[in-house]
Amino acid sequence: YAGARPIGVSLIIGGVDQNGNALFLTDPSGTYVPYDAVAIGADSDKVTEFLTKNYKHDMTLEESKVLAAASIMLISENIQSYENITISEIKSETKKFNVIDKNDIVKIVETAKQQYQTEKK
Question: Is the pLDDT of residue 3 over 90?
């Protein structure tokens, strides 16, 4: 019927262009808002609060990956299962998309456990 949306989707869209790095959150209405760090889905308010508290503008890409893993661990019931974590990156210099190797993800998660262990539930 008129005015009803059958499907609503929220997305986090990130990329690099001639203006630099960008991260946007879109909502089902089509509105998009820029963020430095944000989460969507279950417990996204808790994760976004964690990201807001811990994200720094001068973080390296490696530090950002550790923070991303820590934010997943914040709400994950089974963090020992690394197979469910996928991390990708787009380096500013190359502007190329890369999916991080699973062995590297294990190292990132271990570092996140050490750095952010007091933040867990």
Answer: no
Upper half-sphere CA count for residue 71 (Cβ side, 13 Å): 27
Q: Give phi and psi for 15, each to the nearest 5.
A: -175, 180
Extended beta strands in the chain, E state:
11-17, 20-26, 32-34, 88-90, 97-99
Per residue in 93-111, pLDDT (tens digit) is 888 999 999 999 999 999 9
Tokens of 54: 């811990």
Beta-strand relationship, 88-90 and 97-99: antiparallel
Comparing CA positions, the residue from 31, 32, 108 lying closest to residue 72 is 108
Is residue 25 a contact partner of residue 9, using CB atoms and an 8 Å limit? no
Alpha-carbon distance of 43 to 8, in angstroms, equals 18
